[in-house]
Amino acid sequence: MQMKSTENTLCVGLVQQSNTAGRADNLDKLAANIRDCASRGARLIVLQELHNDLYFCQVEDPRLFDLGETIPGPSTGWFGSLAKELGVVLVLSLFEKRASGLYHNTAVVIEKDGSIAGKYRKMHIPDDPAYYEKFYFTPGDLGFRPVPTSVGNLGVLVCWDQWYPEAARLMALAGADLLLFPTAIGWETSDAAGEKERQRNAWMIAQQGHAIANGLHVVAVNRVGMEADPSGRTGGILFWGNSFVAGPQGEIIARASGSREENRVVEINLKRSEEVRRWWPFLRDRRIDAYGDITKRFIE
Asked: What pTM was estimated for this model as a whole?
């Protein structure tokens, strides 16, 4: 069924897919999924983290820097042409080669005319078993600034950023209309069932908390499926999907499968944030005069 955005609503597409080692195959699937979302009325389409390839950060391998690309570059040009053809805004997640020896995990927003509206470089970089991102990515240096687009000011953050209330709050204070989280998160397969459930629930609750605290919709788009650890040291990652949209009171508006590829097109009420912020004026009651210590690493 095709939805239609209006003055007060925005149809957002979430592309949750599994990946293979073949970039061309992944791009073909992404294009088909983007077209599907656009045909169902999506004006803004959000892709998962590092969507062109397998999640390569399971190992530390200098050869994998070859996957990096410049911005502008091949991907921004390819997706830009698709965005222009379909008249949609796309949120990409790319392995940016900024200079020799300097790489970032970068979200790029493509405007509906195919141009680059702006970008965000991932600020919080994990370094855990199967998530060795510090080996590849330099922390971002663009700050927490929403990207202005034809569908609103997009507060784009990336995966590990989603655990930090400061990031969401700063995006909100800078005028974000939505918070968007391209994501690649799952279970290391040896974890116990109860631990897996706690991890997934915590992931959703943390982002629902950002929605509530800031009175904004949150759109989180995760990948899905099993990806083996090339080193064989772990059992690989089973990405848990569950891409979702939460409203400004933390309510779950839509939630994708935890085990299969899925495109979702979700209608968002753009007036809802204003209504909720009038009922729950958290921004009004902030004690900015008393928050100076928040910039310290730890309070002794």
From this structure: 0.97
